[in-house]
Amino acid sequence: PQQEGVDSSDAAAAPAEAGAAPEQQAAEKPEKPAQVKRERRSRSSRSATAAAAAAAHAEVRLGGSFANKARGEQVAAGWPAWLSAVAGEAIDGWTPRRADSFEKIDKIGQGTYSNVYKARDSLSGKIVALKKVRFDNLEPESVRFMAREILILRRLDHPNVVKLDGLVTSRMSCSLYLVFDYMVHDLAGLAASPEIKFTLPQVKCYVHQLLSGLEHCHNRGVLHRDIKGSNLLLDNNGVLKIADFGLASFFDPNHKQPMTSRVVTLWYRPPELLLGATDYGVGVDLWSAGCILAELLAGKPIMPGRTEVEQLHKIFKLCGSPTEEYWKKSKLPHATIFKPQQPYKRRIADTFKDFPQSALRLIETLLAIDPADRLTATSALQSDFFTTEPHACEPSSLPQYPPSKEMDAKRRDEEAR
């Protein structure tokens, strides 16, 4: 599924997603030694210039001597000056670990700007996941984009949300590693396995954990904005954790700021975002959760669109098209382009006749076309889906699945895009 975007309101973040991936910018032909030296000097000069610009911006933002003092303390603690200058608030109070204190075991995930490794902490012997974020040009905007993710992770503390255990800096490269608990599986990988068929108590267990994690995020003023199976990680104790807050954003329903509509992977993206909404809230995550619930019960993604137009068409065919009142009040940017000539009827109950009635009722409200009609995570947790028998099983009673090839889910995502 397609995944795009960063906050237009967060101008700091946006440029990090623009342009070719750093690995695509690498020279295709072998370089001669002299070329390499010139290139290194050029890169060093550009990096120094970018770092100086970052430092100057930070001083203006934080205020002269205070910024200098705070930055000086962070550099003395071992943080690179370029990172402290731009992301000082995100790393405040933390001491960096050295990259050589971890032993990489295997690469388990890859994105445009980051790689994820299975690694061993040399000090404790613990197996961890290291998310390596590259800052090849030290652009302040890309560093601020990462700083927002760190700030969000530091605000969250819940059994069903990944916990940021530490930060690691590398003296050899302009990279930062985020340290997380190592998780054996993701929900997308298990759901796609032909040998695995979830029981209703297991589905209830997974979805209850997802909604509990979302409830915590929303109560802490965080929208995840990319809920999908490959971002729902599982350990061998059956605990589900929401991961990958790269597209997440802070929000305050009492002081709304415009946000980008170019978020959430396409198959799990709600209609208001496809219609260009910039004023939205927790409903975007709840729509994605509804898609996950229906997918687990159906055994396959329920709305696998290939383009935004096709995705919206699939949504209208299943969930019905918006009412005239909704079109008038919403004033969404793409409403005139995508408004169907004839209204569609809602067909969730007809499509999923085999689903339990309590599941259908929950899906109906999570997949409400009008976000104002969607449940919150708190109210969804009180749904009769969780109070009727069979009840959700305990996480510890979930099967311990053998380790799968860990790149599979991410690779499926990339191929589907």
UniProtKB/TrEMBL annotation:
<feature type="domain" description="Protein kinase">
    <location>
        <begin position="102"/>
        <end position="386"/>
    </location>
</feature>
<keyword id="KW-0723">Serine/threonine-protein kinase</keyword>
<dbReference type="InterPro" id="IPR008271">
    <property type="entry name" value="Ser/Thr_kinase_AS"/>
</dbReference>
<feature type="region of interest" description="Disordered">
    <location>
        <begin position="389"/>
        <end position="417"/>
    </location>
</feature>
<dbReference type="InterPro" id="IPR000719">
    <property type="entry name" value="Prot_kinase_dom"/>
</dbReference>
<feature type="compositionally biased region" description="Low complexity">
    <location>
        <begin position="11"/>
        <end position="25"/>
    </location>
</feature>
<keyword id="KW-0067">ATP-binding</keyword>
<feature type="compositionally biased region" description="Basic and acidic residues">
    <location>
        <begin position="26"/>
        <end position="37"/>
    </location>
</feature>
<keyword id="KW-0808">Transferase</keyword>
<dbReference type="GO" id="GO:0000307">
    <property type="term" value="C:cyclin-dependent protein kinase holoenzyme complex"/>
</dbReference>
<comment type="similarity">
    <text>Belongs to the protein kinase superfamily. CMGC Ser/Thr protein kinase family. CDC2/CDKX subfamily.</text>
</comment>
<feature type="region of interest" description="Disordered">
    <location>
        <begin position="1"/>
        <end position="49"/>
    </location>
</feature>
<keyword id="KW-0418">Kinase</keyword>
<feature type="compositionally biased region" description="Basic and acidic residues">
    <location>
        <begin position="405"/>
        <end position="417"/>
    </location>
</feature>
<dbReference type="GO" id="GO:0005524">
    <property type="term" value="F:ATP binding"/>
</dbReference>
<dbReference type="Pfam" id="PF00069">
    <property type="entry name" value="Pkinase"/>
</dbReference>
<dbReference type="GO" id="GO:0005634">
    <property type="term" value="C:nucleus"/>
</dbReference>
<keyword id="KW-0597">Phosphoprotein</keyword>
<feature type="binding site">
    <location>
        <position position="131"/>
    </location>
    <ligand>
        <name>ATP</name>
    </ligand>
</feature>
<protein>
    <recommendedName>
        <fullName>[RNA-polymerase]-subunit kinase</fullName>
        <ecNumber>2.7.11.23</ecNumber>
    </recommendedName>
</protein>
<dbReference type="InterPro" id="IPR011009">
    <property type="entry name" value="Kinase-like_dom_sf"/>
</dbReference>
<dbReference type="InterPro" id="IPR017441">
    <property type="entry name" value="Protein_kinase_ATP_BS"/>
</dbReference>
<dbReference type="GO" id="GO:0008353">
    <property type="term" value="F:RNA polymerase II CTD heptapeptide repeat kinase activity"/>
</dbReference>
<dbReference type="InterPro" id="IPR050108">
    <property type="entry name" value="CDK"/>
</dbReference>
<keyword id="KW-0547">Nucleotide-binding</keyword>
<dbReference type="GO" id="GO:0032968">
    <property type="term" value="P:positive regulation of transcription elongation by RNA polymerase II"/>
</dbReference>
